[in-house]
Amino acid sequence: MNFAALPDVQHSIEMFRTLLSQSQSGSPRQVDKPLILYGAGKLGQMAAELFAKLDIPVRCAIDRHPPASGLLNGSIPVLTPDDIPASDRCDSLIAVCVVTAPYEPIRNFLAESGWLDIVPVYDVFEAYTARLPMANGWFTEAPAEAECKAIEKVLTAWSDDESRAAHLQFMAWRLGRQEWSFPDAPVSLDDRYFIPQICHALSDNEYFLDAGAYHGEVSQRVIGMLADRCQGILAIEPDPENFRQLDSWYRAQPASWQERITVLEKALGATGEDRPFRDGLGMASRSCDSSGSHVDAIRLDDLEFPVTFAKIHVEGDELEALKGTTTTLQHRRPLLSITVYHNADGLWRTPAYLMQALPNYNWRMRLHAWCGTGAVVYGIPAERNDH
Predict the structure, then answer these.
(1) Which candidate, 12, 262, 275, 373, has a CA 20 to 30 Å from the CA of 117?
(2) Domains assigned to the chain
(3) How much is the pTM?
(4) Does the structure show a pLDDT above 90 at 24?
């Protein structure tokens, strides 16, 4: 659904209420027939690895531009859309492994090509969260009236109409798998964590917190952007294998940068107690109550790190992490880039917590991927807005 104009406060609330009045659609989808993946990029590669952990075979993958090897992850054949016989299109489940482009045109293309059973891949993983705790395919029920009021309060508090549009797009997908778009609020793939307003506010004396550092890619980008304007980096990553990669990245840095970088194999949390954690899932590793493994947690408030710019992407634990970070944030008033798409806290609880805890900030929301993913809340303290 396309909307020509950005919604102001009143219009955004009206659009939200209209969304609530519409019938909800969609549900987690189990694999009950041969499985084919559409898309052999990064998401397709990760999906193939995760289906292997679930012992769900993948018949093949489809991509308009197959890799030179003709294989996904070294073993799954990758074919072009025209290579699939009509019988397979009728009898298979095709899971779309693309979030760098709108879902509906892909779905329509596949339907017109004869595919009958088409679903976003994250909706498939959502059916197996008891075994594999993915956090991107969740559905939410219509919120209670008190929650609706809280959502409306957040819609009112955004600093620009583009944020209201992004918030509505996010809710439309999560409530009913509706794909809304606003030409003046585009999904931006290339500037996640570093939208222009954040970059404009950067100073010559930054201390960067990279919570959920994975292999160090975002910290490396900060080094490239800021060079000697960056005085220190604290990179936190709880997954043991991810941390090994992060530590290798750190050790490969010049000595002058190693002096400024600290890496910690911890989870950022509301308390310093350890917590159940499902490791070994790459980017998808996360806290999970049913896991037999545990990870050490730490509060940023217990560290002496003078953060001026914080990126927090911790697979659904963002709100818990913020609760152990609030005193530091209130004292240091850093720039903030906080992901909010891994669970329903992102609909209002996480932005509302930030807006209440940190007054005199300018709050924005932007989307950096499709299918309800890539939603990031940005905070810029008023005193740095005109830096």
Answers:
(1) 373
(2) 35-128 (3.40.50.720), 187-384 (3.40.50.150)
(3) 0.96
(4) no
